[in-house]
Amino acid sequence: MAKEPEKKSLKNYVSNDDIGEDVRRELFRLQLECRHVEQKAYDLFLQNLIKGTSHLGLGQEAIAAGFGGAMKEGDYTFCTYRGHNHTLVRGASMTGVLGELMGRQCGLLGGKGGSMHLTSVEHGAMGSYAIIGAHLPIAIGAAWSAQYRKSDQVTVCFFGDGTTNIGAFHEALNMAQVWKLPVIFVCENNLYMEYTPISEVTAVENPAADRASAYGLESIIVDGNDADEVYRHAMAALEKAREGEGPSLIEAKTYRHSGHSRADPGDYRPDGELESWLKRDPLPMYRNRLLEFGLAEDEVVEMEEEVIKRVDEATEIAKSSPPPTEEVMATEVWADGSSTWRN
Predict the structure, then answer these.
(1) In the beta sheet, which residues pair with residue 341?
(2) If exposure means fewest CB atoms within 10 Å of the residue's CB, which of 99, 187, 210, 286 is most exposed?
């Protein structure tokens, strides 16, 4: 009887070697870009230059940066309505992101998609999805395509803790494992599903990791506020997927600094909770780490000032861009509700 091949654990791929100065510079830069673009988006909203609402990932930058720094060109990213950071780290321009949020022609989608639908196919950012859990089956479709084409591409699918209670989560994990698809599921557990604590409506303590075994997957929990830890696990999961060893499920513990959306003051959170998490803000933590590893303070300040300058420049370009014309507005939309498009 043939011996069953040894089942590899993600631990087989994780290295404790130092990440290196060049990668750490990149991870810090990515986190800075995410933080300052979203802070600018908040300011623009207060100036009534961004209409409607949007969902910021302030405090969750280390997850996007860790994966963004690890993924290869050609890999696929699928994310939620809280997807500004995940789109930026794949290489989408600040001008394109801010322009889209403001509904301007320079936006990634010409100003028609807005905050919750950021997409940049050329950078592998395959869309932000406003319907909870809707993108997980689409993500495994992309992974199946890569497997079929033997393209070496890996799909990374980000979602919130509330998605773990949606049927699509379980269906996607099951199929991904059965077919050994090159996909990584990343649960950004920020403790709240909109206004409700995930712990109040979920039977297990860790909504993603504690369910992994049901699909033959490893239970993996990482500190989602530590870009180095996220990067190491991202690299390991990506390598595992490229080797044909199938999917991974990673639960990254983190916390959003603001409410669910602009309309949410977040006053349902217990006293002291936000203050406690602010002490573990990923940006100051990583800045201190760079200094501890010997990077000069002047160099760190130069990086920070350069990012702020680029964000300000992108903002002014986006503000000067006009809204989409009527002709543009009437394209790429349903004309009559059938298969006819007005293009």
Answers:
(1) 334
(2) 210
For 217-229, give one letter per residue: b (16+ CB within 10 A) or e.
bbebbbbbbbbbb
Average pLDDT for the chain:
92
**pTM (two decimals):** 0.92
> Is residue 14 included in any domain, yes or no?
no
Tell me the residue type at 305: E
Token pair listed for 76: 């696929």
The total domain count for the chain is 1
**Residue 269 counted as domain residue:** no
**103-144 tens-digit pLDDT:** 999 999 999 999 999 999 999 999 999 999 999 999 999 999
CB atoms within 10 A of CB 258: 17
Q: What are the tokens at 103?
A: 């509904």
CB atoms within 10 A of CB 17: 7
Structure tokens, 111: 């100003």
Where does residue 269 rank: exposed (0-12), middle (13-18), buried (19+ CB within 10 A)?
A: middle
- Exposed, middle or buried: residue 203 (CB in 10 Å: 0-12, 13-18, 19+)? exposed
Band (pLDDT 50/70/90 cuts) for residue 327 is confident
Q: Is the pLDDT of residue 5 over 50?
A: no
